[in-house]
Fold each of these.
Amino acid sequence: MAESPPELEPLDDKEEPAELSPEEARQQEAARWFEQAESDLTAAHDNVASGHFNWACYMAEQAAEKAVKAVYVFRDLPFRRIHTILDLILGNAARRVEGVHELSHLQEAADGLDAVMTSSRYPDAVPFAAVPARHFSESQAEECIEWAQQIVNAVRDLSPNI
């Protein structure tokens, strides 16, 4: 028989969360997105170390996407159903995304990471007879991590208050 999960501690009802201004709330939420971006980048490195190169590529893509979305949150811009880093950076009128034009110099990195978003996970997105687990190499994973690091660093430089 499976063990039941541990019980969660009840929240202390006596402590009311501090009232935040809309700007403070956006900054706090943007910081959460950026923290997760950094965690995803760490996971990408961990996946390289364990030989899971496809997952390293995917986690690098996720890190970059979440870092750019942190800027959207900070600026109070809509983005929720957009997963294309290039669209998030350059904008896309058809998808009602404004863009973060200060990051437009990172188009190559964004395009490279967008290219692995699906192929790093799904067998039908890589050449026949291959699966993502065998399709990606260590050098491809390292390149994805480098691209993601460029985007994360640029977001940190652009929005130091995140």
Amino acid sequence: MKNIFRNLILRILSKWRIRKGEKFSHNTRIVLRKIEKKEGLFIDEIRGNSLPKLDQARFRQQAKGDSLYLVAFIEKMPVGYIYINFSGTCKYHTSPVLQDLFVKSKLREQNIGTQIIQEAERILKSLNYKKLSLDVEVRNGWIQKLYEKQGFIKKGGHHEQSWIEEDSGKRVEIKVVYLEKNI
């Protein structure tokens, strides 16, 4: 029954899906807002798949005030999201950590990711935070360059991170670079 309900909601949300090749103007402004657990299907819609255990853990963290799940909308259509953890997951995280930024694949390279980061920074400033940090996988140099264009600066060298994925139960080990930005 749960899957039937989920599929019905995703079909309803699909009316907002972007037609192939549709573009928005670089001047199109997003609206970024905090979402609650009951709106979690927006995340699935944007990502194109479901990671229920990961999302449930993140919503529990948000309910405790330890993080924020923010979704970007254009004309009521979910187009991207950002997940920020206030305490970080590693001892070197001394500021809120941008743990996840995702833009619908058909809408990438349209300035949406940049707007999401800028709006998230504005929200963090209003909460009296002075910095935002993140870890980028070494193999994703192009993403690191994107963040550096946004003012993030590499701090230190490469280091290892590992964790057990919430949904698959698999152990993941990656090399990352730590970046930080004054906001």
Amino acid sequence: MLKNYARSVPKADSYSWVDAAPEHVTALQHFICADPPKAAYGGLREKYHPRPWELEVQSGLRDLRLPLPDSERLVIALDSAQEVAGAVRLSFDVTGEQMMILAIATRVDLQGQGIATKALQIALDIIERTTVAYALECDIWAKIHRENLRSQKVFAAAGFEWIESVDKSGLDFWARLFSAPDPLGRKVAGV
């Protein structure tokens, strides 16, 4: 008799969410969030990937030099084997006046389990604490590929809205107006 060895998938909250540090470089270099994990050569001998945004995020995370500058932050979800299950990278924009969510990624075998939603919640919490600590009023921006419907759904559920197309690259700007909570706990109109 064959037994069902299907492993149960842990919930997004069961991972250890930590700030990425130099000791996580090897785990990040092995992180795979793109399916397939590499581009292939197409008919015209050009590299092709069905979801190029996945490959771009994967490459960007793998190539990071840790520790990051003070203006950036990378939070990763580690599983029990200390492998990266998910990641979120955020930063101030070049002006230092707006917050950018640069990347959210989930390991291929764990996609659809709520890790990206948890990563976005963590990013928003970090941004909220930063804006309160430094008395900032800033929007939160992200660039999402217009064919990346999963990310659009996650960001829309968190209150982000499509703003405009960036360029011919397929990226769109999404934003969420951030307002710091009232220190006296009063309800603010529109919040």
